[in-house]
Design a protein that fits this description.
Length: about 220
């Protein structure tokens, strides 16, 4: 096919310090690395074999470049937003990728809560709201956590202890959201842990369990 080459070529979305170990490992494994990112002075611009200053939200533009390159894989790490582009380009090229359902659930906090409920996995109380929500209809127990449904990196997350502060927190989350929606969740006390794994064809391989440290309330 036109997407494979004798010399393995792999496309990388994003080029910051979180992504750089991936670029170096790909090169170590013999891949020719083609990296797409915004025009910032990211380290990946220097370590990749080829760098393209293209906004990662311009998916069709990246797709067209990949068709010309003939890539054998498309990847990213540490970025929900970049993962959307990776999945789109991979599917268009017929390469290994996540399903659209998996992508939607793993990058949207409301859809993830819905998936928990569908599979009877214990979860906190929650509700979805947009610009038309009625603050008086919210019957969750305070304190609450308000988040954009589809952002990462703890953007616009707020712990709210009473209804007086809720409206401002919801508006901030909606403004930050790509789809202009927020999720309100009941707050859970305790330590927070992250379980990192690779899942492929139904097999889950544990990589690490890490404890999360934050700046604390109200923004974490």
């Amino acid at each position: 096919t036109i997407y494979m080459n004798l010399k393995k070529k792999i496309e990388k979305i994003r080029a910051n310090e979180f992504q750089n170990p991936w670029i170096l490992k790909a090169k170590e494994l013999g891949y020719e690395t083609h990296v797409f990112s915004w025009g910032f002075d990211d380290i990946g611009q220097k370590t990749a074999d080829y760098f393209y200053s293209i906004d990662i939200k311009k998916m069709d533009e990246i797709l067209n470049v990949c068709k010309k390159i003939g890539v054998s894989g498309v990847c990213t790490i540490a970025s929900d937003l970049a993962n959307i582009t990776v999945n789109y380009v991979s599917n268009k090229l017929g390469l290994t990728s996540n399903s659209n359902h998996c992508l939607s659930v793993s990058t949207n906090k409301y859809l993830m809560r819905e998936a928990f409920k569908e599979k009877n996995i214990p979860s906190t109380g929650y509700l979805l709201c947009d610009e038309n929500y009625d603050i008086n209809s919210i019957n969750l127990k305070f304190p609450l956590i308000v988040k954009p449904t589809d952002r990462s990196g703890s953007r616009s997350i707020t712990k709210v202890d009473n209804k007086n502060d809720l409206e401002l927190a919801v508006q901030e989350a909606i403004d930050s959201s790509f789809e202009k929606k927020a999720i309100i969740e009941e707050y859970i006390e305790g330590s927070e842990y992250s379980v990192e794994c690779i899942s492929f064809e139904g097999v889950h391989t544990l990589l690490a369990i890490t404890k999360k440290y934050t700046t604390g309330a109200p923004k974490f």
